[in-house]
Amino acid sequence: MAQTMVIGAGPAGLMAAEQLAAAGHEVVVAEAKPSVARKFLMAGKSGLNLTKDEPFDMLMGAYGDAKDWLHPMIQAFDAQAVKAWAGDLGQEMFTGSTGRVFPKVMKASPLLRAWLARLDQAGVQIRTRWRWQGWQGGALAFETPDGMQFCSPGATVLALGGASWARLGSDGAWAQWLADSGVDLTPFAPANAALSVDWSPYMQPHFGAALKSVRWMAGDLDSRGEATISAKGLEGGGMYALTPALRAGTPLFVDLVPDVTAEGMQARLDAKKSKATLSHWLKNGLRLSPQKIALFHEMTKGRALKQTQWIGALKNLPIRYAGLRPMEEAISTAGGVASGAVDSGLMLTACPGVFCAGEMLDWEAPTGGYLLTACLATGRWAGQSAATWLAR
User: Fold this and answer.
1) Structure confidence by residue, pLDDT tens digits, 288-321
2) What single DSSP character describes residue 324?
């Protein structure tokens, strides 16, 4: 048996290890932190959204510019396959009204325990507190509690994550070692990030309130997700889906009444007395929530809008913002190992026998099951590709 090494014990790394073990290889997983899959467990605290059950073309559309590159990998391990895999681990799943798929227990820990038990039965060894330090003399170098350790496996799968949530293990330190080895990298950038907004004191009473039933628009992207007003700005799924456009500074607009057409709103306005005030109409005519009304006034800065301008402002309200929140606060990152740096099996062309998987590859997707689906799919693909490479 050829020894293989997987560096990084998140979903992508564990999936790669599972595939290598299934192919009959001895597998060692090295994890820098004292325990495995920390970001996976953190994601599961609010309900583990494993995948999105929707038509495949719609699923792939969430991956933007990377959809063609990722297509064969996710096609081989799509939403249905993710559900079947979780079911094989004893997890009963359910699909919400929006297509998001969760374990019925709404936690990550039972699935992870079952997965680790299966990996243990397959002979996979997991070594925690093994921090990769790049290559020395052609060997993988690890800083461990027992001092430096050096390994020269037959194949290596890197699943080191992106550059956000460093406290959970994804610090992006690996980028320099790959760059020094001639690997083409795309600079890291925040993805699924909150928005910075310089609020006036007027907004303080609304911090923590959610903006629901809205439509956000930035360039060619739009989102019906909600967002929460925080002291620092706006955060939540409604913002995360627009990150690629907002990262470029694209103007942001919101439709505060997306379920009513402009014509319908005009009819409602015509039915009111001609002397109706804007504040009265927002509250009693449209029955907007206090946080929507506050956002409207904040962004119009109390301008004396003519009645003919009210509807246009409500349907296309410009949101002044000061960029994205810092990358370390982002849920995920764009950038990493460029698609041109790996072959069709995710092997680094500059480092034969070294494969990459998960968020360290240059792709991004919104929250909602897309991130985990691609991490699992690329981990599976890299593991199988490494096994095929060893067989040659």
Assistant:
1) 999 999 999 999 986 788 989 999 999 999 999 9
2) B
Q: Which residue is listed with tokens 């007003």? A: 229
Question: Comparing C-alpha atoms, which of 221, 250, 219, 260 is closest to residue 238?
Answer: 221
- Over the stretch 209-247, which tens digit does the pLDDT of each residue have? 999 999 999 999 999 999 999 999 999 999 999 999 999
Tell me how far apart the alpha carbons of residues 173 and 163 are, in angstroms, rounded to a whole number.
8
Q: Can you say whether residue 233 is alpha, beta or left, with left for phi > 0 and alpha for psi between -120 and 50 degrees?
A: left
For 195-319, which CATH superfamily applies? Translation factors (2.40.30.10)
The rounded distance, in Å, linking the Cα atoms of 338 and 188 is: 11
What's the pLDDT tens digit per position in 341-391? 999 999 999 999 999 999 999 999 999 999 999 999 999 999 999 999 999
Pick the CATH number of 4-190+333-391 from 3.40.50.300, 3.50.50.60, 3.90.550.10, 3.20.20.70: 3.50.50.60
